[in-house]
Automatic annotation (TrEMBL):
Keywords: Molybdenum. Pfam families: TOBE (PF03459). InterPro entries: Mo/tungstate-bd_C_term_dom, Mop_domain, Transp-assoc_OB_typ1. Residues 2-68 form the Mop domain. Coiled coil: none annotated. It comes from the Bacteria. The keyword Cytoplasm does not apply. This is TOBE domain-containing protein. Gene3D superfamilies: 2.40.50.100. The keyword Lipoprotein does not apply. NCBIfam families: Mop.
Length: 69
């Protein structure tokens, strides 16, 4: 696999929760740290994502926003 994104983090799928059109996929990347992605249900099916399988969290963003009250 080759990607232009520089932030490719290996992990294990811990949750796949499909909604009407979008799924939330949780990937544990180590030490109990979990990254959650929102992807289409179609992408879940095409990738064959299942709990316990290895996957990569790939992060490519131009902005990261943080807010508090």
């Amino acid at each position: 696999m080759k990607l232009s994104a520089r932030n490719t983090i290996p992990g294990t799928v811990t949750k796949v929760a499909k909604g009407a059109t979008t799924a939330h996929v949780a990937i544990e990347i180590g030490n109990g740290v979990v990254v959650t992605a929102s992807i289409t249900n179609e992408a879940v099916d095409e990738l064959g994502l299942k709990v316990g399988e290895k996957a990569y969290a790939v992060v490519k963003a131009s902005d990261v926003m943080v807010a508090v009250d």
